Amino acid sequence: MSAEAPTDTVSADPAAAPAPAAGAGRRTLAVMLLLTALGAVLVLTAAGRVWAEGMAGTLEVSVTGGRISELPAGLALVALAAAVAVFAVRGAGRLAVGALTVLAGLGAAASAAAGAGDTAALDSEAARKLALTGSAATGVGHTAWPWVALLGGLLLALAGLLTARYGRGWPAMGSRYEAPTGRVPAKRRAAAADSPADLWKALDRGEDPTAG
Questions:
Q1: Residue 155 and residue 38 in contact, taking contact as beta carbons nearer than 8 Å
Q2: How many CA atoms lie within 13 A of 131 on its CB side?
Q3: Which of 71, 100, 114, 160 is buried deepest, with most CB atoms within 10 A?
Q4: Distance CA 138, CA 176 (A)
Q5: What are 3-20's pLDDT values in tens digits?
């Protein structure tokens, strides 16, 4: 009589399978939010700093990034709003939000690069200070803040790429409030179906509506 060698069986737990995917989804979501927040802070901070400076006669003149172009700050706010919208949409909506964030980030970066060498706003400020139309600033110099804004725009674009690539697996706002997919016991369905009027009628008949 020959004894068969015991074979090891690996039991797979279906409930444990989604756990790694859910953890990865939360990590990529956290990275997206971090990139969005950091990118927006860089762009908005840079927009409020001096980008160009020079002289108008004997007067010093300077202009901030917001004076040169309102696009970087405006597009950074769009990207922030898109990050919030991620929790309100699903499926193809996440892809659309990601694409919008990519465009906003690239637009902020491009407008910051264009404003890095712009002198029109500085010349306008020089003309205002001298009260002479057509005056131009002299000894013009540019700071590094436009490039900080450009970096922030690229971070926003990267956040948008993450949303487009991984957004479908991220949790959505209100998912905890969805109706359960399992069957509801018959007793609970009956209790839910009873309206207050039905309960009062039962009491009038001398019945105990809580019995059973």
A1: yes
A2: 0
A3: 160
A4: 62
A5: 555 555 444 454 444 555
What is the distance between the alpha carbons of residues 23 and 35, in angstroms, rounded to a whole number? 19
- For 57-105, the pLDDT digits (tens) are 888 999 999 999 999 999 999 999 999 999 888 888 899 999 999 999 9
Share of the chain above pLDDT 70, in %: 70
Look up residue 198 and give its amino acid: D
- In residues, how long is the chain? 212
Which amino acid appears at position 37 of this protein? A
Mean pLDDT of 108-130: 91
Q: Which amino acid is at 27?
A: R
108 Cβ neighbours under 8 A, 6+ residues apart: 43, 71, 72, 75, 76, 79, 149, 150, 152, 153, 156
Helices (H), the chain: 18-47, 65-68, 71-85, 92-115, 120-130, 145-166, 186-193, 196-204
- In terms of Cα–Cα distance, which of 32, 38, 19 is closest to 84? 32
User: How far is Cα 157 from Cα 207, in angstroms, rounded to an integer?
Assistant: 67
Q: What are phi and psi of 172, to 5 degrees?
A: -115, 150
In this structure, what DSSP letter does residue 179 have? Answer: P
The region that residue 208 occupies, defined by phi over 0 for left and psi between -120 and 50 for alpha, beta otherwise, is beta
Closest-CA residue to 80 (of 39, 29, 133): 39
